[in-house]
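Please produce the structure of this protein holding magnesium ion.
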Amino acid sequence: MKTKILEPTKENITYAGRMLAEGGIVAFPTETVYGLGADAFNEEAVKAVYAAKGRPSDNPMIVHIARASDIGQLTPRLSGDIVALIENFWPGPLTMVVKKKPGIPDATTGGLDTVGIRLPDTQIARELIEAAGCPIAAPSANISGRPSPTKAQHVIDDLSGKIDAIVKGDDCRVGIESTVLDVTGDTPVILRPGIITAEQIEAVLDKKVEIDPAVLKQSTDGSLKPKAPGMKYKHYAPKADMVVIEGQRDKVKKEIERLKGLNEQLGNKVGVILFEEKAFIEAAHDFFARLRELDKENVDLILAGALSDIDGVGFAVMNRMLKSAGYNIVKV
Ligand code: TXA
Ligand code: MG
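Below is the modeled complex.
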């Protein structure tokens, strides 16, 4: 398949919208990462997205809308919490998991009776959805298991020849995927941490927000030893082996230098990821792009310094960093 690479002009967005309406699959920029879109109500188109990404079909997709009022097409009821979250965080990097309307195909929601919904904060995304005239199911526009794409070139590298079109835009402002928040029960639960944090959501709703225990355990479990975890945890993975060095900052720096030296002596090409202290927003913005750069440089080993003194945003970045490394952690 020849993939059309489109500059984001009015004409091209209209054209790409028509492709989506007719069952095509089109990648586009959002403020978090690039998405690979299909008409959320078209089962065949949604299946084509899974096929292009090589993604397991039981993993539900996030459905993107162009206006908050379109949420009524996807869910039967709005709670006070949902309305407050829409008013405070949309458009923006917050996905809400709500009860789904029966008309949404199982292929879109992985057979669940809920649906994740998001109103993205880039004009290109909203104009494209508007032009398509339907809600757009869109996972991140990467080959399944690879780092999420934050630049148009990342999408071209992964999906050129496999999808109908790519609408180009600026590099993504946020750099990690949206916060996924389950609001189907009384207590909201964060299923995937993002740049919108539990504290911010708590302040708006004036109630406690939980973090899914699975996320917490994976993000904090220092007892995991290097090489222990199985491949089932591999996600956002670079081609190189990757190790996260965790501990007090000076010791982390020293250990990275030591491991770098040792491995270079063995003839390995070594890449280092070490962010400025407390620069969590920058870390989120750069992390996936950095992994892809190091892959392009063909490094054999990536040594990444764990973020310390983390806030909610740092927590979201550490969630990605540990997954990328397959929970390969060295404590110093
Ligand atoms: O920022 C983002 O969310 C990006 C851009 C393109 O919007 N999209 C994205 O999609 O990250 P994806 O498919 O890579 O990740 C969607 C995540 C998955 O972890 C999926 O399991 C979860 O959201 N999810 C989607 N619908 C869900 C539902 N109904 N219940 C529970 N989890 C859901
Ligand atoms: Mg993804």
